[in-house]
Write a structure and sequence with these properties.
The chain is of the alpha/beta class and 400 residues long. It has helices at residues 21-30, 43-46, 49-56, 77-81, 92-100, 106-113, 126-130, 132-143, 169-181, 215-226, 254-264, 307-310, 327-335, 379-395, and strands at residues 7-12, 34-39, 84-90, 118-122, 147-148, 152-155, 161-165, 190-195, 200-201, 207-208, 230-235, 247-250, 271-273, 280-282, 301-303, 317-323, 342-347, 359-360, 362-366, 371-373, 377-378.
Length: 400
């Protein structure tokens, strides 16, 4: 969402990893950014500008003096329009030129002329990367506030295994989001979000779980990141990709989640609990697999500790209430005992809402009794609505 209507200059230089920039162009475009691709003459040896023309829906700049280009007349116009410049992959040669201020192609000219933040994702052979001059050039660029992402280690086109691969596209995108969000309304805040359903072991094979997919918690974490927060996400095993730029701690049980929340909370501001935490766990996990013996099996369960009830502190506290009846009334009853500023109630029996869906219909109830019944929205939109209220609480805390 935060990339919507942002102007991104995507610089591509002559590395075998240039083909990976196609995914970056596509993902930026899908996220709503206006992507202007600038390719060096070596880059077009590796991948055709037509690919980027098709993926971004915009002309691709390959020549400094192309009279047909809308940018060549005033060659700094792209530099001025940019909200961010991303060079992926960036070769040792382009890095050296940028460090020295050489402006002999359209990409270097654009970087030299822009005031926008610049992200550089190097990709090159290990020895080129490790060479003192490349390292010096990268240090020089860092000192000038360029953001360097990677490179990653792994298999290289030279056949070697080493440092020099273009970082994962999701990591490059993560940096773009961090940079564009850094002036957001949650900037300088540290937010702890929990996500997913806990798993309480019965024996080494089986556990008690629930239907939570973690999507709401992940949406909250990503929305907070896009609004400039530092985000600690404490998540149970889920099928979801770990969002780049977010510190993710994996846990399984309610007890592990409680410990992870306690350790993440040092210095954090709002605690947002989205996870479906087990209320009961088997009393004493069996060390050996329970064998089929015929007849029935009775499991004795004991109460888990209530995370929100245990973690105390004068920070903004947001809980969720997954209800199947008397939604608002049941949710309201949890506000006081859990000392919540907000509780987000959802009807888990509603279609298109709750566990596993990409959409959610929630009612946000605040400590002062305010009730905001939202329409069916995507989980990301719900996340932003919740964060709007969190931001208001920072400006105007409610009396406890
Ligand atoms: N919660 C928690 N620790 C638990 C159980 C729940 O912190 N051991 C949190 C949930 O993450 C959620 C809120 O408390 O933010 C409400 O959870 P919910 O399951 O709706 O309520 P419970 O307190 O468990 O009560 P009940 O299941 O009886 O409705």
């Amino acid at each position: 969402m935060m990339l919507k209507d942002k102007t991104v200059v995507l610089g591509i230089t002559g590395s075998i990893a240039a083909y990976k920039a196609a995914e970056l162009a596509s993902r930026l475009t899908q996220a709503g950014a206006r992507v202007h691709t600038v390719m060096t003459k070596d880059a077009i040896q590796f991948i055709s500008p037509i690919t980027f023309r098709a993926l971004t829906g915009r002309p691709v700049v390959t020549e400094m003096f192309d009279l047909a280009s809308e940018y060549s007349i005033e060659h700094v116009s792209l530099a001025k329009a940019a909200d961010i410049v991303v060079i992926a992959p960036a070769t040792a040669n382009t890095i050296a030129k940028l460090a020295a201020g050489i402006a002999d192609d359209m990409l270097c000219c654009t970087v030299l002329a822009t005031r926008a933040p610049v992200v550089i994702a190097p990709a090159m052979e290990t020895d080129m990367y490790n060479s003192p001059v490349t390292q010096d050039n990268l240090l020089e660029l860092k000192a000038r506030d360029f953001v360097i992402v990677g490179p990653a280690a792994g298999w290289l086109a030279s056949g070697r295994d080493g440092l020099g691969r273009l970082s994962d596209i999701k990591d490059v995108l993560g940096s773009v989001r961090l940079i564009l969000g850094r002036d957001g309304d949650l900037c300088c805040k540290h937010i702890v979000v929990t996500a997913g359903g806990t798993q309480e072991p019965i024996d080494p094979v089986r556990y008690i779980a629930n239907q939570s997919s973690g999507k709401m918690g992940f949406a909250l974490a990503e929305a907070a990141l896009d609004r400039g927060a530092r985000v600690s996400l404490i998540a149970t095993p889920t099928m979801l990709d770990e969002p780049s730029g977010i510190e993710v701690t994996r846990v399984a049980t309610a007890e592990q989640m409680l410990k992870a929340v306690e350790s993440a909370m040092t210095g954090a501001d709002p605690l947002i609990i989205a996870a479906a935490v087990a209320d009961y766990r088997p009393k004493g996990t069996k060390a050996e697999k329970i064998k089929r013996r015929g007849g029935g099996l009775t499991l004795e369960l004991e109460c888990t500790r209530d995370i929100l009830g245990t973690v105390k502190g004068s920070f903004v506290r947001v809980g969720f209430a997954a209800e199947s009846s008397n939604i608002v009334e049941n949710a309201k009853e949890k506000l006081g005992p859990k000392d919540l500023d907000l509780i987000v109630a959802n009807d888990i029996t509603a279609e298109d809402s709750g566990f596993g869906c990409d959409t959610n219909q929630v009612t946000i109830i605040s400590r002062d009794g305010g009730i905001d019944a939202l329409p069916l929205l995507t989980k990301r939109e719900v996340a932003d609505k919740i964060l709007d209220k969190v931001v208001q609480l920072f400006v105007q805390p409610e009396p406890r």
